[in-house]
Amino acid sequence: MWPYDTAYRGHLSRALSLREDPFGPWHLLRSTGILFIIVGLPLFIFPFKIFGYSFLFGITIWIVSYPFVNRANKKQQKQFSEVMDEVTRQVTVEKNALKLKATAEIISENADEQVNINVVKVYAGKHFTPNWEWVRHKLLFRDKFRCCLCGHRVQLADSVAHHINAFSEGGKTEFSNLVTICVECHSVIHPWLNPKLNLFWIHFERGRVYCWKCKKRLDTIKEDVVICSDCGWLYHISDGACGCNYPGR
Q1: Is 164 within 8 Å of 171 (Cβ atoms)?
Q2: Phi/psi of residue 217, each to 5°?
Q3: Which DSSP symbol is given to 195?
Q4: Cα separation, 245 vs 141, whole angstroms
Q5: Dist. CA 166–CA 78, nearest whole Å
Q6: Whole-number Å distance between alpha carbons of 142 and 188
Q7: Residue 118 in contact with residue 106, Cβ under 8 Å?
Q8: DSSP alpha helices (H): ranges in 47-149?
Q9: Using CA atoms, how far apart are residues 84 and 3, in angstroms rounded to an integer?
Q10: By the 8 A CB rule, do 186 and 150 touch?
């Protein structure tokens, strides 16, 4: 989950740039040394006068540049960690704010509604409940038909029921963990909804993500998993398990 606060929007692009391999003067020098090593190795084995010493020259360049390259890499890794730590702290603040908004009790007005509330309790360990449309309507009324993040008015069609503590991380499907947010805010706090960021999310975050259906940790690039184009949830290609807001969509 990425912060909704606009002051942190640049952190995402910053994190993406810091995940790329660093490249500076020392990296260029090291690459040159490697090139000399590759070209000079056969000439060193079968000497052709001075050209054979290009291998030794390349080794020298690589040794000299190594500590500087290593320092640059560590510096970039530290910067990346600082950006991610700042994002994590802000996410914690925003989660706590959402939890306060989710404390309002869902009141049952008749026997049928009490039955629906009991259904929600039974399916709290699932991503959605059989009476999901009723749940969505009750959330909309509780949240006064407004997005709990940006405050804009919403209806059922342009909003989603957002798990404050992510379902993939053990968050329950219960009213105290659900808030109404608009589709735009949902795509901000779940960056993998943006197709340009899918690869970043899979490669970097999959070690922290669990499949919502089988609970399997997605810690390898070889997993048979893709991202649902409708809702952004990770799902298995083999069984099509998907966390869309509307079952049977």
Answers
A1: yes
A2: -70, 130
A3: G
A4: 18
A5: 27
A6: 23
A7: no
A8: 54-101, 111-122, 132-142
A9: 11
A10: no
Name residue 153's beta-bridge partners. 146
pTM over 0.70: no
As a whole number of angstroms, the distance between CA 162 and CA 180 comes to 6
pLDDT of residue 213: 53
Closest CA to 136 of 9, 246, 26: 246
Burial (CB count within 10 angstroms: exposed 0-12, middle 13-18, buried 19+), residue 71: exposed
pLDDT score at 243: 45
Nearest to 12 by CA among 229, 205, 218, 219: 205
Encoded tokens for 20:
């790329």
DSSP state of 165: S
- CA distances 229 to 114, 165, 202, 205, Å, are 35, 22, 14, 18
Q: State in Å, rounded, how far the first CA of the chain is from the last one.
A: 24
Instruction: Give 174's pLDDT tier (boundaries 50, 70, 90).
Output: very high
> What distance in Å separates the CA atoms of residue 63 and residue 221, rounded to the nearest whole number?
33
Radius of gyration of the chain (CA): 26
How far is Cα 177 from Cα 92, in angstroms, rounded to an integer? Answer: 14
If we measure between CA atoms, which residue out of 183, 249, 170, 181 comes closest to residue 210?
A: 170
- Cβ atoms 225, 205 nearer than 8 A: no
Each residue's pLDDT tens digit, 3-51: 888 888 788 788 878 877 777 888 888 888 887 777 776 666 565 555 5
Spell out the residues 6+ positions from residue 22 whose beta carbon is closer than 8 angstroms to its own.
72, 73, 76
CB atoms within 10 A of CB 46: 8
User: What pLDDT does residue 50 have?
Assistant: 56
